[in-house]
Amino acid sequence: MDLGLRGRTALVLGASKGIGKACAMALGREGANVMLGARGLAELAATAEEIRQETGARVEIGSVDVTEACQCEAIFGAAKTAFGRVDILVNNAGGPPFGSFDSFNEAQWRAALELNPMSVVRFMNLALPDMKAAGWGRIVNITSLAVKSVLPGSILSTAGRLGVIGLSKLLADEVASFGVTVNNVAPGSILTDRVRNTSLKARLEQGMSEEEALADLAKTIPVRRIGTPDELAAMVAFLASEHAGYITGATIPVDGGVVRSIL
Ligand code: NAD
Description:
The structure is a single chain. By secondary structure, this protein is of the alpha/beta class. The chain has two domains: 9-190 and 228-254, 3-Layer(aba) Sandwich (Rossmann fold); 191-226, no CATH class. The protein has helices at 18-29, 41-55, 69-83, 106-134, 155-175, 193-197, 199-205, 210-218, 229-239, and strands at residues 9-13, 33-38, 59-63, 88-91, 137-142, 180-187, 251-254. Helix 5 links the parallel strand 5 and strand 6. The chain starts with 8 loop residues before the first strand and ends in a 9-residue tail after the last strand. 44% of the residues are buried. The chain binds nicotinamide-adenine-dinucleotide. Nicotinamide-adenine-dinucleotide is lined by residues 13-20, 38-39, 64-67, 92-95, 142, 144, 187, 189-190, 192-195. Nicotinamide-adenine-dinucleotide binds at residues 13-20, 38-39, 64-67, 92-95, 142, 144, 187, 189-190, 192-195.
């Protein structure tokens, strides 16, 4: 299926590795120009080269900590300078630390809320004027299955991400008539460094090998395996496509069936 993205420009945040990198690769494969943002330029440069080699897409990079408003403005401006406009915005970055409610102080809460929802609010603010003027835009936010089903220890993440879900639902309504869609993708267990450093780490510390840890994690997933970043990115690319123009305000799990809730 041709997703109709040739010549479109995507800004993908948290794009040096993991889910963000896979999203940038998938959009590049569909012929979109891609601006990659993350904090470390060296890793970003290597990722950009890999995407260029594999897809032939035009790829630019910018250093950004999405919790810093002026850096968000700078990378958005750089994307416009490089490609003329941003048609597709993929909001993605790392998650806050895990822990119980009583383990976090006010500063940690503020830091988590700067990541979600505030970084998402900032990039939406930057992207929407041009998308509305052009009569076309796609915003996809990477969230977590924790917005569908409680994940113990994820209190900072869940509180902030539910803000993203709420604001996206309302924004979807406000901008639908301009041809702009706003959707969320909710990953379950997708094999990235974040999972290696959280779900798998706990199992490795119990003495399991990586293979055993993956098999143990897979037992909790109906499809009996962990997902790949490419599988998540395929959903993001589809939501960014021409074909997804009638899907907006949705939160779609990509989780191998883990979330059992009906709604
Ligand atoms: P990852 O750690 O592999 O990659 C995170 C990327 O975000 C990196 O490029 C990193 O440099 C960048 N980043 C982190 N903080 C940033 C900041 N402040 N500003 C700019 N860039 C920043 O993580 P991942 O597994 O790809 O996860 C991506 C998102 O999906 C995270 O929000 C994570 O919580 C969420 N998620 C992932 C899973 C999973 O199974 N991998 C499950 C649920 C939710």
